[in-house]
Amino acid sequence: MVDVILETRHLTKDFKGFTAVNDINMQVQRGHIHALIGPNGAGKTTFFNLLTKFLVPTTGEILFNNRDITAAEPAQIARLGIIRSFQISAVFPQLSVMENVRIGLQRTLGTSFHFWKSDRTLARLNERAMQLLAEVDLTEFADTVTVDLPYGRKRALEIATTLGMEPELMLLDEPTSGMGHEDVHRVTELIKKVSVGRTILMVEHNMNVVAGICDKITVLQRGGKLAEGSYLEVSRNPQVMEAYMGTTSGALEGAH
């Protein structure tokens, strides 16, 4: 029996005659790292925006733990445990790394976004904040002002703040976008590490990342689902090679 945490049924989004997401049926299995790939304009970001309710579907359903969440508000989605990490690093640059994580943890005190809370009030969050920094290998950067962090480390910090919200399902939007090889490797290993006991759905362009860590891949093209399966299965699909690489050669296989 497959344990499905997230399911979309005939999910569709139209924008004044243009169909950005077209009749997508997809299941994400609990405990898996599931990737959403496809060429630019395939509908990946729109699909993510539908899941987090930044956009309302034109038709179709979204189910989370067998519960219909199609009509839920963004705040409800987050409370249910679907937490999205954004493509652009969403951190407070003038605060320390530790303070950034602590702000993410404030909701556990019921004082979310009360930035004027005293240090004493927030001190009880220090231990948990340090645990999260350890989980993403940022302990040594705890007192660093975030603006001074290297780009890859900022993405790690963003993942730490996402973890602080105790996600059941993490949505990662191009987590390695704009990174050099060393940072890509570090963040890839980090995603693998934090995926233990969690479920991750990620949009990712880097095929080496997808090949290395994903259990299942859904390929979108022009808003529709082109293919789905393991990396090996989709990389050998002629339609995927043509859509994704603009070729029918084995270029996708070479990305492994």
How would you describe what is shown here?
Mean pLDDT is 86; it is low at 247-251. By secondary structure, this protein is an alpha/beta fold. A 6-stranded mixed β-sheet has the order 6-7-8-3-9-10, with helices on both faces. It has a 4-stranded antiparallel β-sheet with strand order 2-1-4-5, with helices on one face. The protein has helices at residues 44-51, 74-80, 97-105, 119-123, 126-135, 151-164, 181-194, 207-213, 231-235, 238-245; strands at residues 4-15, 18-29, 33-37, 59-64, 67-68, 82-85, 169-173, 199-203, 216-221, 224-229. It has 2 domains: 1-81 and 168-187 and 199-256, 3-Layer(aba) Sandwich (Rossmann fold), CATH 3.40.50.300; 89-166, no CATH class. The two termini are 30 Å apart.
